Amino acid sequence: MSCDPGAERRAAAIREVVTAATVERMDAVVEEARAEMRAAGARKEAMRFVGETLTRAVQEGDEASARRLRVKEGLIRLTERWRRARSSTGAGCEASANCPSDAERREADRRASALGDEVWQRYEQGATDDEIIEWLLQVEDIHMIWTGSSGVMLQLKGSHEVGIHRCDFHNHGPLPDALGGRDEPSNGRSDFAGSQASGREQTPWGSSPRMSDIW
Q: Which whole number is the average pLDDT over 14-30?
């Protein structure tokens, strides 16, 4: 038997304290490990998100660059056709066999106005200039498209010009203007069928040829 009856109790108490401290430390170590795993997972997720975002941004940039090139080339071709049409009419519509009738003009104006409404809606939905111009270039009977920092103006064959201002809608900046940039602070869309001065149609971007000079 032990000479010190309390020694065993003291030893047991010490063991309990050491065991409790060890368990507490083990819990802390486990929690630290879990926190590190969560942090590592978060870092991995963040890196994955950054990588996906960069990839998507590069893809969108490539698509935007390709679209802008298509639009620029399309505007150049359209402008060349427009200029050839002007030069081929000579003295004007009255001297051309291609002069549209009043009924054809009214129908062309109706279609151009409806097309302007569609452009307006696309601006409201956040479409960029490039997206709108690329779409317009595919429209049947599109005769000319003018671009500027405030929006676009379109004309179908036989119609008067229709201007659409983007207001504060989202856009990626003005396109290269195939005919030279034109700026105007007005908002909204307008039809320019009625204003004439010195034989030329007045538009928000300045004066343009009368339809009789083009047909």
A: 74
